[in-house]
């Protein structure tokens, strides 16, 4: 999918900016489940509003008013929510599938059902098996303030083992496949377990480099518009530093 995604995106550079009407991606002030969706929109040069609900809204409880307002938080009262003209869509993986079609990747793949299904499978893997695990790990470590060091080491060790079970498989598929959710998932692996996680996995490293060098993504990363934190928690850097101390050597 990476190759076709790159071709489709390159073609879209000239056309997608001309999206008519309004496109809004709403999420919190964090990377979380939304970052890969932001990459897809940025890469296709889509003119969209990256609407981020601030931490103040959560702390003040105002989020609960927003949660009860379906025009903000969609039918499930949770984010991300995508608005495309008058169409509103909830659920990360459904939004990803919608964008796969809307941004031209399906067409580029000749509307091949098997390629679309494979792309959905990669999306699901990246979201369910890596992004959510990463969010959980950071939340768990964040709540283990008074935990014994060996319990922290054990939580990080379990995450490390699961990720290292996946890496040889990702390496195999990185030769020819990829996509924005895999890109984000692997960036989180580097953030949590260190860039050295990809040592011995040259296709993974090359895939990451290729994605980061895509002109619109490179410009976006350079602009500093990407949220700093995965969870939005201001204590995340401290948590990541604690995780780094507990990584298996
Ligand atoms: N299954 C949904 C889960 C959405 C979800 O739980 N979003 C969280 C943020 S990561 C949220 O909105 N939390 C606030 C709340 O539910 O009040 C998806 O994949 O989009």
TrEMBL record:
**Biological process according to GO:** glutathione metabolic process
User: Gene3D superfamilies annotated for this entry?
Assistant: 1.20.1050.130
Any single GO molecular-function term of the entry would be: glutathione transferase activity
Domain of life where this protein originates:
Eukaryota
What InterPro entries does the database record attribute to this sequence? Glutathione-S-Trfase_C_sf, Glutathione_S-Trfase_N, GST_superfamily, Thioredoxin-like_sf
Annotated GST N-terminal domain residues:
21-107
Q: What PROSITE patterns does the record tag this protein with?
A: GST_NTER (PS50404)
Protein name, UniProt field: GST N-terminal domain-containing protein
Native source species: Guillardia theta (strain CCMP2712)
């Amino acid at each position: 999918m990476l190759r076709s995604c790159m071709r489709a995106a390159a073609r879209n550079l000239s056309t997608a900016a001309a999206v008519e009407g309004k496109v809004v991606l709403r999420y919190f002030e964090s990377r979380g489940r939304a970052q890969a969706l932001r990459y897809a929109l940025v890469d296709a040069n889509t003119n969209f509003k990256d609407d981020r609900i601030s931490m103040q809204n959560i702390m003040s409880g105002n989020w609960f008013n927003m949660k009860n307002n379906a025009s903000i938080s969609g039918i499930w009262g949770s984010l991300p929510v995508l608005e495309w003209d008058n169409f509103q869509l909830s659920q990360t993986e459904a939004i990803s599938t919608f964008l796969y079609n809307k941004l031209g990747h399906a067409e580029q793949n000749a509307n091949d059902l098997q390629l679309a299904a494979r792309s959905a499978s990669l999306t699901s893997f990246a979201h369910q098996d890596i992004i959510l695990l990463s969010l959980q790990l950071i939340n768990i470590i964040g709540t283990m303030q008074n935990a014994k060091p060996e319990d922290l080491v054990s939580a990080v060790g379990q995450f490390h083992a699961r990720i290292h079970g996946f890496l040889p498989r990702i390496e195999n598929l990185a030769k020819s496949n990829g996509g924005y959710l895999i890109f984000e998932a692997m960036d989180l692996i580097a953030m949590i377990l260190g860039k050295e996680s990809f040592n011995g996995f040259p296709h993974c490293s090359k895939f990451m480099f290729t994605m980061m060098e895509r002109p619109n993504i490179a410009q976006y990363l350079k602009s500093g518009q990407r949220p700093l934190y995965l969870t939005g928690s201001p204590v995340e850097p401290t948590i990541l530093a604690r995780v780094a101390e507990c990584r298996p050597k």
